[in-house]
Amino acid sequence: MAISNGDARTEIRGWLKENVTGSGEVADDYALIENGMLTSLQTVELVMFMEERFDIVVEDEELDEENFGSIDAIAGLVESKAAA
Amino acid sequence: MYPEFTLHDLLRNSAELYPGKAAIVDGKAEHTYEDMARQSSALCAALQDAGVEKGDRVGILMEKSWEAIVAMLAASQAGAAFVNLNPLFKPPQVSYVAKDCDVRVMIGDSNKLAAMEPGTVERAFYKGDRPDSDGVSGELTDLTEGLQSGDSPRETRLVSEVDLGTILYTSGSTGMPKGVSTSQRNLVVGAQIVSTYLENTKEDRILSALPLNFDAGLNQFTTALRVGATLALQRSRLPGDLLKGLRRHEITGVAGVPPLWSLLLRGVKSIQEEPLAHLRYISNTGGRIPQANLDELRRLLEPSGTKIYLMYGLTEAFRSTYLPPEEIGRGTECIGKAIPDTQIMVINKEGKECAPGEVGELVHCGPTVAMGYWGKEEATRKAYRPNPLAPPELLDVERVVYSGDNVRRDEEGFLYFIGREDGMIKSQGYRMSPEEIENLLISSGLVHEACAFGLPDPDLGHQVIAVVSLKDGGYESVVEEIREYVAKNGPPYMVPKAIMIQDDLPKTGSGKIDRKGISNAYTNG
Questions:
Q1: ipTM of the complex, rounded to two decimals
Q2: pTM of the shown model
Q3: How many domains, chain A?
Q4: Given an 8 Å threshold on Cβ–Cβ distance, is A65 in contact with B237?
């Protein structure tokens, strides 16, 4: 399945808005984890959503701050996974 | 070896014995014990120049970092008490703590200092760019300059074990958070006791994944400092980062709270493929691990030689009990036996020691019993009382801590956690009083009455639930607005998982909101 970066962004934003309080207006490069907005446990929930929605597998080692630090980073991960 | 009386005595010993050894790993940077001694002396001088006197409080408001570690040691050397503020705190909580214990100087990350409410402190040392802030009414100093000056303390102040070492903020079942006044002796003895039963040595490489404002997180640092081990600072708790931290630093020991293990267990496949061969022990504190997670951790870690310690402690006495690894089969309710040099009593309502099997309150007696709650006489008298079993001839010399936790002891002397009778909420290892959350909800200006309680949750301990009545009638859309207010003005763990609207909250006979009744109705309904 081909997923554009833009699609991924929209879906991730939608999930955040639903599940993470205060995430409605953040910029794509906002440091979600560093600023304490996205907790570790929520990140794990987000991964489960992404795996199901985009039909991708996120390896244990990939579940880190580098890949999940911002909407930009998460969309980039989805895009690279979906293209593979 | 110097005798161990103060936190900075521990540093002096390790700096003399292992000057070139890595004390702290912070990201890519490694800092030796020699660096630690030099920079904390320099910062001590800078604090003295900034007017810090013996007995003052120095706040530390930063993400876990090398600088945060040095700041504690510098304050200790200056004879001041350090106060680690939870990095997740929002400006209202920072103000509360700064005011409550009269923080003289705040050492902080620039962005955190910049966000503080006007006039929170008089003086500050900042890490990063100079903050543009009215949170600091007086002078601002660059922390890096303070650390790098190479200066020595202006005067040697006699600091002894009975001096206040730190204030640890924690919540009880009522009111706003209280500062537990912890002496230098409490800090040192806590490090001695825990390093004894975890058998820590200078060969250990310990992963610091808990916050330093939390007694167990602070204790990991003091333990490492005492034995000359290496402490690797871990900020991210994401499974990938945890695995990388454990492997990259060849970690031998890690302490965590139950949610941390859930996160680590996401990495089952990776650990199976590449076992954590260096990991000598893990220790759990801050709540009960779900049995399924404990079984999984045992299956995953024990074959490669990792021991699992279950610990129990309350901030008021630092650490209380632990279950040795070989007894792990007793189940997750078992909190083991007293830590070394400590007595744990189980006291019934008549003030007598319970018989085996009888449920009573856990009462802690030993050298880690803290000095009391900062500035709160009534609360101190309630929790810190004379030893009920001491001979009357000893008069009022020894105080013990009444934990509020109900436990029972079996025939073999093992203790089992039963629960609490009050409404204290414990989620993700954090203690909160319902009132603290209710106050935050009400300060949103949208809520008329609020009731918060903890709904039992296997992973988190409790989920925070709030039932509110609204000021201007019941509109569902207000719920999100309230939640956003709480998220902006409080730490993430205080944000209720669910906010329910009820027109009129039930009251008790005395007219107070019937928290117990509401909580029971929702928990069982």
A1: 0.89
A2: 0.93
A3: 1
A4: no
